[in-house]
Amino acid sequence: MRIALIQNHPRFGEVENNLNGLLTLIESVEADLYVLPELCFSGYQFVSTDEVRSLAVDPDGAVIGWLRQAACDRNAAIAFGYPERSAAGCYNAAMVVTPDGRDLRYRKTHLFYREKDLFLPGDSGFGVIEWHGLRVGLAVCFDWYFPESFRTLALKGADVIAHCSNLVMPYCQQADLTRALENRVYIATANRVGTEDRGGEALTFTGGSVLVSPRGEYLLTLPKDAEAAEVAVIDPEIARQKKINRYNDIIADRRPEHYTL
Ligand code: ACM
Question: 178 is in which domain, residue-wise?
Fold first, then answer.
């Protein structure tokens, strides 16, 4: 299975331009699963809930339809983050769309920093969707900081975690090595680049998207400051083998009776 990391530089609020840029990056490489960043066509640094609402989209609407169409055209799954509008308010959401018209929907569980003033806390829980024999789990950016997020996806059977991100701290790309090892899963962290200076605060996104193997190896490392699209081949069977030697199985050997939740 070929996994593509798509790393873009969205311009805040320029939804159509940003979508066109993403589609150009997607079309530049051949893959079975494309992983795009968090809030990948809206931009990140919203200044009010009204502004979020003005750029948030309906998961069944026309904007997401562009990405559904791209999945059909390329016969590939696409994972991406977007601002989701609902009757109750807006969510920092992500979705995996497949060419056969299915999708997996996710609302970010762990909101970061000012996101807490702007979005509703996610209520979907973590999920996994199967596409062409590959089990894809979905997480958004700051979820990585909570080991329970990727553990839950591993326990739900994910082979690869599509981790749509807008990282501003420098730790995740290294922490992914540990998260991948401790769960024996592939992690595809698709990050963005660029700076957004809005609402009196500038945020610079750290780029450096990574694809990490269940053995704790970098399969892809993208540049820190430029748009990019790169592909690597993965073997889901490696993620399904939770035994690390004759004695140890990292899932079966857990001792939950000694853990505090
Ligand atoms: C983040 O969750 N966007 C850092």
Answer: 2-258
